[in-house]
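User: For a reading group we're discussing how well predicted structures match intuition. Take Succinate dehydrogenase cytochrome b556 subunit. Before you show the prediction, I'll give you the sequence so everyone sees exactly what went in.
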Amino acid sequence: MADSPSRIERPLSPHLSIYRPLFTMMMSIVHRITGMALYFGTVLLVWWLLAAATSPGAYDLFAAVAGSWIGRLVLLGYTWALLHHALGGVRHFIWDFIHGFGAKERVLLAKATLAGSLVLTVVVWIIGLALKG
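Assistant: Thanks. Here is the predicted 3D structure of Succinate dehydrogenase cytochrome b556 subunit, as structure tokens, for the group to look at:
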């Protein structure tokens, strides 16, 4: 057999613990997590629609679960996840037009996404609770 060349020693990829977590990196991870959370929220949406279409008893059960403190907490989280993911989509849409790639712009867009999702969640819940009475 022919002699094979000796193996070249190359550095291994650095582990995640070596990287310093950046705000933009964390927002990217949160964007992915909220996207996965929206799958669970869609199950709640389907339950609500099926309960409304089935019978008053089924809807009363959904309303009781959604109206409990844990149900409201889940709905609050779903509202935030939906708004955060949507604003993250707007951020990506801005990037599609080759804008906001500078270091300061990336951080500003990430902070705006987080702040905007929190503010919009509070506004949606204030309006929803005001309309409920």
